[in-house]
Amino acid sequence: MKIICSKSNLVKGVGIVSKAVPSKTTMPILECILIDASMNVIKLTANDMELGIETRIEGEILEHGIIALNAKIFSEIVRKLPDNDVVIEVGADNQTLITCEKAKFTIAAQSGEDFSYLPAIEKEDSITISEFTLKEVIRQTIFSIADNDTNKMMSGELFEIHDNLLKVVSLDGHRISIRNIELKNSYGSRKVIVPGKTLQEISKIIGGESEAEVEISFTQNHVVFEFGNTLVVSRLIEGEYFRIDQMLSSDYETKVTVNKRELLDCIDRATLLIKEGDKKPIIINIADGSMELKIKSQIGSMDEEIIISKEGRDLLIGFNPKFLIDALRVIEDEQVDLYFMNAKAPCFIKDEQQSYIYLILPVNFNAVA
Amino acid sequence: MKIICSKSNLVKGVGIVSKAVPSKTTMPILECILIDASMNVIKLTANDMELGIETRIEGEILEHGIIALNAKIFSEIVRKLPDNDVVIEVGADNQTLITCEKAKFTIAAQSGEDFSYLPAIEKEDSITISEFTLKEVIRQTIFSIADNDTNKMMSGELFEIHDNLLKVVSLDGHRISIRNIELKNSYGSRKVIVPGKTLQEISKIIGGESEAEVEISFTQNHVVFEFGNTLVVSRLIEGEYFRIDQMLSSDYETKVTVNKRELLDCIDRATLLIKEGDKKPIIINIADGSMELKIKSQIGSMDEEIIISKEGRDLLIGFNPKFLIDALRVIEDEQVDLYFMNAKAPCFIKDEQQSYIYLILPVNFNAVA
């Protein structure tokens, strides 16, 4: 194999596919990026068997072939080369020569034959969404997936399509995040669970422009994201997602409307007093016209009053401050509405159209302290 | 004690003095910042017994007094407060109330009486230098102090004043960095060894403007840096510094002139192939008109040719690439001159006026490999 591409194209391509290179593996071939110039395009591929990414880069093929290069070394070399054309040439024993201007690197590579190609996907049905919207919806929900693997289902997000509506849901046992998005077209009904890791990597790769589009296709076991020159293939999580509808309720005893920034800043300040791993709740005392937030730890105590408008009963309720912060951070509205039933029932933060619903369970606290 | 200052003044002041708060100590009082409002100014002080920093901040004193607050907690609270006036008030048992708008923090503090004040310094003689020059000269020499304490002297830098010249020297047994600076005025001769840590912290605090000035005063055991509202007092390292003059030589057998950027980028690329802790040298083969740089490790090999102009003999010599990189990074000149005697003798990188001299010892290498 012998190819020529510009350094900038290589850097970009390697940056994209590297997201699918596992950080730890016992199989050295998985730590590689495959350069495939066997046909008339140059394709870079990485694949950790759950998630695979392939991207086409521009360049000239002087000799067809394939080679698998260690992703870490290859990407470091490419990044530090002068800003000019790079020649990659495979010699005897897969020794690979990377030349740019007068710099010559020789590294040992592995045969491309050993590399696991991405699964061939026959796209059954697909939806279209803008890069911007996809990136946003991931950011607005990804924080409430469970970060351990004890419940596989909780490590993914539900993507539910019905007519022209996409509903994205994540939950971790303490809270639920829901976003409802209107699509440009209508589609058949479909429910899949996409691994959180796939969504995290996708959101790093896509540009986030509102004009650029992503095509998302589903098969029995896979989801495929296509955008620009790039193809991301991921396994789906098998099984049926939690029935969240029965956890949602529109009844409430107390409704609070508050400036989002003020509430967020106040809770953020309060967390200063909590050391990591310390489970001190923030206590919220809701009264007419104002609500008092209090926290107390070994380090010290804080209390602050925020002006609100309130409907319904007074309430004293405690929360893990991190859960409130996570939800408030991804809401763009200047004012937010919080709905409460009682001190044992979940709080809902949602807008009128229910484009977002954040459900957060309260925590017990010692009212005397 | 009760004082009012703006959040921004507090943040700035706390940021400055925090540099003298030790990261680890068995004495809780050293982890504190002293707020001293006993006289008619508000002073913040931190002191780790080697290095002490004091800064005055603007504000209003409603009740005189002093208090010592844990630096980490205090600075985190202050940073997260709303951007408005902050009231700090000491109550019973040194419980300290920090109020800003509707936010109220209460933290336990320590009596200011337990705090070790900065040593009272009678300034004997002092020099004046711009913030910019001081910051630069520290950056240009600090990398070659020894980072362990086996030789105390090597963990500091020599500041030698003679007439209107300031010479700053650091060395670690493998290399020497020397900068000669012309001062605006002439001073009596003086030689002191300033701890590297002091210089590192100073260079983080000073603004680096060429108009702003720093007054540096010396006493028998201390050095004092005064700039703006801030005073930094540090112990000096006792003893006589190494006699470096006898290590410097102006003889050479080979002189190379090379584009600094090209040389630096080439060595930088080569280090990709070296894992941390791996002591592979870069081998330089100097010939007429060009020099070849080679490195070989388990990961792979690199070679690159650079165009040079050369006087004197051909030479094959090896270096720790990091030492070359460190020196080249802080030289501003577009072209640099390298002087060599033989493969066992140090290389000198210096300009004609000797405003900088970097001496680097070569390393042995296996010429066959």
Portion in helices of chain A: 10-25%
User: What is the rounded distance between the termini of chain A?
Assistant: 72 Å
**What would you report as the Rg of chain A, rounded to the nearest angstrom?**
25 Å
The chain pair forming the largest interface, with residue counts per chain, is: A-B, 27 and 27 residues
CATH architecture type of the largest domain in chain A:
Roll
What CATH calls the topology of the largest domain in chain A is: DNA Polymerase III, Chain A, domain 2
Please tell me the overall pLDDT of chain A: 94
Q: Major β-sheet of chain A, in short?
A: 9 strands, antiparallel
Shape of chain A: elongated
Number of domains of chain A: 3
Top CATH class of the largest domain in chain A: Alpha Beta
Largest beta sheet of chain A: what is the strand line-up?
Answer: 10-6-2-3-4-16-15-14-11
Oligomeric state, counting identical vs distinct chains: homodimer
Tally of strands of chain A: 25
Uncertain residue ranges of chain A: none
| Full CATH superfamily name of the largest domain in chain A | DNA Polymerase III, subunit A, domain 2
Q: Beta fraction of the residues of chain A? A: 35-45%
Q: Give the structural class of chain A.
A: alpha+beta
Specify the number of helices of chain A: 6
Protein name (chains A, B): Beta sliding clamp
Domain DNA polymerase III beta sliding clamp central (chains A, B): 129-241
GO molecular function (chains A, B): DNA-directed DNA polymerase activity
Subcellular location (chains A, B): Cytoplasm
